[in-house]
């Protein structure tokens, strides 16, 4: 998934603040291409809400009509809060989590978000290659446009950012080897601290269950191993009559 292949398209946004908020969430999630169709004047509120995404907003491509999208993009994805029945194939969207798997498309892809007050028109929906809808409370299914943008961009980019997060030791999952080392160190501590075999067995079993249920990271395991190792050293020192 190449994030630079995607552009966020806002169709006739009503409120300048929403444009700024969309630019901000795009910056948060690593997207940089914004297209605005007949936007309002972008002034102080838009700049204030865009924060570090201001350059995205200021460099947005401005178009006069929805029809221009077909000349610029190889694939157009429309968004809708209204899901049709089985007979209305024009409003049969995919769910957000399926979006990245569905878009095995080369070229430029437009993620199109409709007007805040009435969404995309039927003719515009007809022109889309695919629709996506975010499940929400049926009593009030329509989200703010920046919220919708954030959800869909997260679904598209999460594998990219998860992979980068896992490169950091504090975000890496505990490996089998590290788990065994941690259990061995705790076993040493239990053997030193507890006198009865039953108490030792119970402590080791309890610790194993706790570690197995928890989502402990490699960095957290390393910290625990270091603390337990020092505790064992101090306890052995006391037993031998050495100062702690």
Could you please describe the fold and organization of this structure?
The protein has 244 residues and is α/β, with parallel strands linked by helices. The protein folds into 2 domains: 3-167, Alpha/beta knot (3-Layer(aba) Sandwich), CATH 3.40.1280.10; 176-239. It has helices at residues 16-29, 44-50, 54-58, 69-72, 99-102, 122-127, 145-166, 176-193, 197-213, 218-239, and strands at 6-11, 33-37, 61-63, 75-79, 109-113, 130-132. Helix 1 runs parallel beside helix 2, helix 1 runs parallel beside helix 7 and helix 8 (176-193) runs parallel beside helix 10. It is elongated.
Give a quick summary of the entry.
The protein has 244 residues and is α/β, with parallel strands linked by helices. Helices cover 49% and strands 11% of the residues.
Structural class: alpha/beta
CATH architecture of the largest domain: 3-Layer(aba) Sandwich
Query: What's the number of structural domains?
Result: 2
| Major beta sheet, strand line-up | 3-2-1-5-4-6
Strand content: 5-15%
Q: Helical content, roughly?
A: 40-55%
The total strand number stands at 6
Please give the alpha-carbon distance between the first and last residues. 55 Å
Report low-confidence residues grouped into runs of 5 or more. none
CATH class of the largest domain: Alpha Beta
Principal-axis shape = elongated
Biggest sheet, open or closed, and with what strands and sense?
6 strands, parallel
Mean pLDDT across the residues is: 87
CA-atom Rg in angstroms = 27 Å
Number of helices: 10
